[in-house]
Each structure stands twice: as C-alpha cells, then as structure tokens.
Amino acid sequence: MTDPLEGVDEVPVLVAGGGLVGLSTAMFLAQHGVASLAVEPLRGGSPLPRAALFHMRTQELFRAAGIEDEIRRQSLKEFEPEGAIVMVETLAARDVVGIIPSLNEGVDALSPCRRLFITQPGLEPILRARAERAGARVLEGTTVVGLGAVALAGEQHRAHFAIVTPPTVHQVDGDARAPRMPYS
Fold first, then answer.
1. Which one of 22, 72, 96, 138 counts the least CB within 10 Å of its CB?
2. Quick one: 87 and 171 in the same domain?
3. What is the number of alpha carbons within 13 Å of residue 102 lying toward its C-beta?
4. Contact predicate 74/138, CB 8 Å
5. How many domains does the chain fold into?
6. pLDDT, tens only, 30-48
7. Are residues 125 and 42 in the same domain?
8. Is residue 1 part of a domain?
9. Which of 19, 64, 15, 21 is nearest to 162 (CA)?
10. What does each C-alpha distance from 114 to 4, 71, 111 come to in angstroms?
C-alpha cells in the first residue's frame, strides 16, 4: 500500500472535511494555485443524498471551474429536468400550500446557468476529480486529530504527519466534528 501523504511535506491550507464545501474549497484554491490538503473521515463520500437544489450562482461558479456540463449530465440521471417545487405545511400534509411549476421559471434573464437538482453522492465525485486535476490532495478515511504538526490518523492506526505553514485551517465538516487539540 502506498503512503497517501507521499510527497506532501507542507501545505499552506488544511481543509478539515471532504464533503461538498471542503471539496469545493480545495478545488477553488487549487485553481488559484494554492496547494491544499482536504481530509475526510468517510471513504467514498457521503452515502446520504443531503444536498439537492443548486441555485444559479453555484452553477455559475461550477461553470467557471469547468464542471457545469458534467454536473448537468449527473443531474439528468438523478432528477427530472425543470422539475416543479411543491410546498406543504408538513410532510404529512395532504393540502398543497403552493407550487412553483418550473424550477427555472424566470431565471433566463438573470443568468446563463439554470437551477438544478443533484444529490450529494452524485456531486462529490465530480468535485473531487476536478479538485485533484487542479492539484489539490484529498485523503479519505482520514481524520484531523490535532493541529501544530498535524497528526492525521489513517487506516490500521498508522499516523501520518504534515506540517501546515502558515497555520491556515478551514473546518468545513457539516456535523461540527472539531479537531481535538486547538492550535497553539
């Protein structure tokens, strides 16, 4: 098995979390020439479809990153294009409170991009691949356990170390898992 940190001596930015926000952060940093290391405790991304609707501004950023077409293709695999939004007071409600018949009603005058639905498991692999093509490092099955010299706990209880200089850490873990040791 190869060392996942092979060739990583120093990184200016450590991204704690490799979900949608962490992968997007790593991707945009890499596109601007800023090296980063994103670490994610899960392997293979989130199995839960927590995200779905992406607005035009998000799509504009993905367009600038060169992944809009790939995201559209994945969205078409998962959802009906131009779907409606049905509003109810509760999930058990029988009465519809409101309906927006088209997801993209009126957006043509505002943006070249369209709103779309895509799940988190559908979007994460696209973001990860683009981040890595741009030069970001992404480690799955890895947890930040401390800062300073950053200890990354990986498979088989092996410890890997990376020095983060300057100490810039972006924690983007959605469920608020904090590093166990504060930076000192």
1. 96
2. no
3. 7
4. no
5. 2
6. 999 998 999 888 888 888 7
7. yes
8. no
9. 15
10. 38, 11, 7
